[in-house]
Structures
1.
Amino acid sequence: MSSNAANGQDRILLIELSPSVPNLGRFLVMPRFGLLAIASVLAEKTRYRVKLLFEPYTGPITPESVAAENPRYVMLNGLTTTSGENERFVARFRELTRGTVPVVTGGEHASMFPEGARRYSDYIFAH
């Protein structure tokens, strides 16, 4: 096992948090297809170990639990209704990791409002 694998640096965590604002998305227990597609491609085409965390399915996802996995990258997906959760999550995550883990954000919010998503992201996936 390489030293990167031993310290978790070969891991990418893909995360989708639950919105606190009521909307239809709160009742769908299925990640958006974009997150599933990206996870599949990364798992198949890269050396990274990919873990998909979908809060409505897995239960609460905390910055502390994500930081404890010592990922190389964190990717967030979200609707505009989760942008506040994403921003708070990343702020705490960066405190815990001292900002050493790049955060990539994609999804509807990042595509429609990249300036807003840029407040808490190092990179934006927009379509």
Note: The domain at 3-124 is CATH 3.40.50.280 (Rossmann fold).
2.
Amino acid sequence: MPRKDKKKAKKSWKERQQERQRAEEAERIRLEIERKYAKGHKGRPIGKIAGAVFLVALLLISYGVWQYMQPPQPSTEPPPINPQPSQPSQTTLALDFALNDINGTRFSLGGSKGKVIVLHIMGVGCHGQIYPINDNQLKQLRTVCDSFCGEEAVTLTTVAVATCPSSDLAQIRVAYNITWPLGNDYDDGKMDIAQKYATQGDGTIVLIDKTFHISDSYGTITASTLSSKINQLLGA
């Protein structure tokens, strides 16, 4: 082989070596770039982030399925007591009912015939929640009781509508110092007393005269007004 061809062959081998080196360097740079860009927030690899996202999604889905499988929980809100369409008049005879006080004592509305009766209807939610209307009514009744509960001629009664087993009526009795009968209309699974007397809806106070006729019903009333009405009926 001529000398000129050998020199050309050696040059081609060097060129091939250089090309291979350049290719290896380019591959090294490419891999380095991919490695840098393949890292997520705070240097965490994307694969790990994707795995973490998948795990969180799986947990959320599992929690949603678990919630769906749970039995529905009772609302903590007091049950709705809708106003009754019929309004009482002075010729309307009161409807008798019997109920257990929360301490187990049996009492009946008819057992107070001949007295002035103040009847209060109150919705109670789980764990003793009541609406502001009944917070007001109980406070007014407490003031009225201070004046009349010692008299044989006046009877106060609060009928709760508590559909939850944990209505905490005993705590309500203590909180408002209720010394008059307090029973649950829903003890028998029905709201029949509220349906008869809640003409103003939740918080209705019904005034019954000595002849066992309904004198009037009130949505809200102050202790002074209620006391005045009771005195009028006592003097009638």
Note: Strands lie at 98-100, 106-108, 116-124, 154-162, 182-184, 205-208, 214-218.
3.
Amino acid sequence: MAGALPLAWLVIMALRDVAMLGDGLLSSRTATLLWNTVLLGILVAVLTGAAGTALAVLLMKTDLPGRRILFALLSFPFFLPPYVLALGWFTVLGRHGLLAAVLGPRAGMVTSDAFFGLIGAVLVLTVAYTPIALHLAAIGLRSIDPAVEEAARTRFRWPRIIQRIDLPLISPPVALAMLLTFVLVVGEFGVPAYLRYPVFSGAVFTQFAAFLNIQAAVVTSLPLALLVVVGLAVERYWLRQQVGFLARARTTPLIAPLGRWRKVSAGGAWSYAVLTVVLPLGGLVLQAGGVASYAAVVRDAASSIIESVWTAGCAATVMLVVGLMLAYLVERSGRTRRNALDSGLLLLFAAPGTVLGVSLILLWNRPGLTGIYASVLIVLIGYVAHYVPVAARITGVGLQALSAGVEDAARIAGVPWTRMLRRVLAPMLAPALVGAWFLAFVFCLRDLDLVMTVHPPGVETLPVRVYTLMANSPGSVTAELGVVMVMLAVAVLLVAGATLAISRRSSAWS
């Protein structure tokens, strides 16, 4: 109801005017947008796969100093809206950025011209999505049987073992990370729009918001939707079985000593983290100014901050309940139903926010439904449609770790299913449920594409406020709001970590 029906209605509306559909899909503009979108997606996917794999090997298989802190630092960009990273990089590479201050105005002109376009979009999105490859490659390394490496160590050194054993074994999860990155990048709106790089998601939003041409927006959505469907088909029919071994992930992989290369490797890894994460965020802080200037900005943006937090919290709570039901259906039902439902959920998550937003408008913008379409409810429906697969997948991972015998024992004891779910499964799934809620909350909190498309007058989340102020406000104001977004993400992650630790102890006690 929240996601599949609007997307189906969008396809039906597109097929109603075949002539316009053909003209729109066969135009030179469509070919240009398709080339730009695919090129951006491929470049970012390849770079994130290479960077994530190299970093995962260093952090998971070696005795690199400060590995945990470095892992957390490199993961942090994923919890920020990508356009906030773009703002940070602009403070470094812009005409009046940090490089211009150090190297002179001419250098600032060169870096600024290069930043606004494909190069800047690739840079920002690579930093934003490298954590996907980093985490999946790390999980793959944990899943390797140490006995295989121990046997290889009788004849070979660690570099050859990593090259000939570890890297081939983790190639499926790295390929999955690259595929997920490609799907997310082709649907990205904020960064390409800010950096003036024309892609399909921006064209969809422009047709709707600037020209009020719903039919043209629908037609423009179809090639973008087709790219997403192709990506999901690859995941379903090629990668799904190959990454099944990730469920065997271990927590104590063998460690390869770096020896005399330890300091060099640490310097390279930390330099990469400082240049890609600390430098742009530090530039954002510097441009924002002193602490006193934040009071006025926070006071002006208080309503947007509150709007973001309570809508994300409500949506995450709904997603937790619905996600638990969906996860149970996926993990405890027959293979055919499980595959169909899982594929449908993944399609909802991979659907670009602008496309999903246009489909929601097509379905809900009609007489008798204005109470939903013109209120914050349309935003909540969009959140649930887009991100409930996140809650379902994380909860499903928790269910995979529980034996079905627990439920069988409850049935034999005559415990009703609802009570068994509430009194048996929920306490044992507490860590997964907490993780699912917080991750869904973070996704809603950072969302721009969907909310920018559907938000009604009077409903303005913090990402929307930051984005709309980019073009019309001083750089210090947008930088201050960007820092507020960063601090909000840090606060959420700290609360999530503390809550997850408590839930793990509670689950172990249960």
Note: The chain has two domains: 24-288, 291-510.
4.
Amino acid sequence: MIKRLFQLNWGLALYGVSVGLMVRSNLGLNPWDVFHQGLAERTGLSLGEIIVVIGAAVLLLWIPLRQRPGIGTIANVFLIGFWTDVSLWLIPPVGGLLLAWAMLLGGILLNGVAGGAYIGAGLGPGPRDGLMTGLVKRTGGSVRLIRTGIEAIVLAAGWMLGGTLGIGTLLYAVGIGPIVHRMLPLFIIADEEKASVTAVSADCCPQPR
């Protein structure tokens, strides 16, 4: 359990840093963070605070779906937002296109590594992934269809609110699945979990939140 908790915490910390890198690149964010950023600009709250608020709100939607959170789920709600704000405080705005691309690609890669680490800890899915799997169970729809529908909705809402939609959004969509899929076998702690977690990754290539 100590190893699981340690891996969970550094995985979530790296995830927050990856979000900060992508924000500073100003080349586009993943769908949920486009939504988070748009809300942050409209409300005056920090990006990290919005991530926490939305994570908690999504977690409430688990109740009618009869989903049960784990330690990792609760930690996800609070720690990713915290580390996102820390990273944005530490990482200055980018000054050139080359550096912006380095931040974007580094952020996507780091995001995949962080996702593999925290999912591999096996202490519960993030609130957003739990919403997806809960809807799949309740509706009988396909993972890909439910996931695409959710992300299309939050992406459109975030774009209308002023979130950053760009080439980074497309690269994230294309790249995050394969990266997480490769990282998971390196970080899964319990052997008996390996088949089931890897199967989920292969099926839906989840953004691990």
Note: The CA atoms of residues 33 and 163 lie 8 Å apart.
